[in-house]
Amino acid sequence: MKSNAWFEQLQQNVSNLVAKSPAADxxxxxxxxxxxxxxxxxxxxxxxFDQQIAVLRKTTERVSALETQIRALETRIAELExxx
Length: 84
Known about the structure:
Shape: rod-shaped
Number of strands: 0
Number of domains: 2
Keywords: Coiled coil, Cytoplasm, Ubiquinone biosynthesis
Structural class: mainly alpha
Helix content: over 70%
InterPro entries: UbiK (IPR007475)
Radius of gyration: 32 Å
Number of helices: 3
Mean pLDDT: 86
Subcellular location: Cytoplasm
Coiled coil: 56-83
Strand content: under 5%
Protein name: Ubiquinone biosynthesis accessory factor UbiK
């Protein structure tokens, strides 16, 4: 157990050292800069994107069905107009 306690102490010391180092400041600055850039972009969540894909698929299927229906009606009209 002594080696485990020593390892945990070492890990804690390294974590404290990194937290107080300039690397932590750089990481915070980069995160802030990236957060600001992302906020300026017109981004959507993955959930919203997936929902819009589902709506688009449904709409495409409906348009295709309506096109088929219109072609059938046009054919029917042409047949009726060709009869004397």
